[in-house]
UniProtKB/TrEMBL annotation:
Pathway per the UniProt entry: Porphyrin-containing compound metabolism
Name of protein: Cytochrome b561
Any one GO molecular function term: oxidoreductase activity
Listed GO CC annotations: membrane
Organism expressing this protein natively: Knoellia flava
Length: 295
């Protein structure tokens, strides 16, 4: 029996995915403008007030940071709607788990954001903040790409070896993202205009380590793409992995340009968007490697 998915359900799940990507960009904006401590306390913005006050010395930074906090509330509303929609229209248990994961993750992110402020933007908490967001993007993307699937056991469309390499590729992608946060945490954009908190690593060394991991990742993506082309899988499978490759190459290009141009804010923000889109593309790639027949 196929799963009937109304249009409103799809709109909610798409909004859920867009919101998770969007919060990464607004968080990047906070960091790149040095507004991480625009609201220097948490959960209040300043002692005695949950919203910025005129007397604050943080200026525009308080507006930017408070705006990002406010968007977290909107994110939670969309996540609640996603859980409601999945429970109402989708009998598939794994989609319900994914929806709840996003909702719980939003709450975790709110708390982690508070810890980040209270630790004065310690680079470990800042990195964790981004990586949790990347995981929530993956869960929201899974919800979106699997929205029409019925309940049942997935049938592989490619040989087991290809699926294994694809999973390794995703693992390496996680390493690449983690190293990317270390690169950022070793560079000039600490998140606060006056009190930078850094890892202490040599930016050049850690950047090249990140680049080495990227090269390995690119090689694995090419291998999966070629394998899907040579297999008997439907054409859409190779097309999906071609998209993964194109997003990877575009992200790599932005990364090298930003490194060679001393990390201009616009390119750093574009690189964060690229990282989010890469997570989405990888989830699409994994989903494309199997199907669940409609009954």
């Amino acid at each position: 029996m196929s799963t009937h998915v109304p249009r409103v359900h799809r709109h909610i799940l798409l909004a859920n995915l867009v919101a998770q990507v969007g919060i990464i960009l607004t968080g990047g904006l906070v960091r790149l403008t040095g507004s991480g401590l625009g609201c220097p306390t948490w959960p209040e913005c300043v002692p005695g007030s949950y919203v910025p006050v005129r007397e604050q010395e943080e200026g525009i930074h308080k507006v930017i940071e408070f705006g990002n906090r406010t968007l977290t509330g909107a994110l939670a509303i969309v996540a609640v709607l996603a859980v409601w929609a999945v429970w109402k229209w989708t009998p598939v248990r794994r989609l319900k788990v994914a929806a709840v994961t996003v909702l719980v993750g939003v709450a975790v992110q709110a708390l982690l954001g508070g810890v980040t402020v209270l630790t004065e933007l310690h680079p470990v908490t800042v990195a964790a903040h981004f990586l949790v967001s990347a995981g929530l993007v993956a869960a929201a993307a899974y919800l979106w790409f699997c929205r029409d699937e019925p309940d049942g056991t997935p049938t592989p469309l490619v040989p087991e070896l290809v699926r294994a390499v694809a999973l390794v590729t995703c693992g390496v992608a996680a390493v690449v993202l983690t190293l990317g946060t270390v690169v950022t945490g070793s560079g000039p954009h600490s998140g606060d205009a006056d009190a930078p908190a850094r890892f202490g690593f040599d930016p050049r060394t850690i950047s090249w380590l990140h680049a080495d991991a990227v090269m390995l990742f690119v090689g694995l993506v090419v291998a999966v793409w070629l394998a899907t082309r040579l297999s008997s899988a439907p054409v859409r499978v190779a097309a999906t992995w071609r998209t993964v490759l194109l997003v990877t190459l575009a992200q790599g290009l932005v990364g090298y340009v930003q490194y060679l141009t001393d990390l201009p804010e616009a390119l750093v923000l574009a690189h964060m968007l690229g990282a989010s889109l890469l997570v989405v593309a990888l989830v699409a790639g994994l989903v494309a490697l199997r199907e669940i027949p409609q009954e």
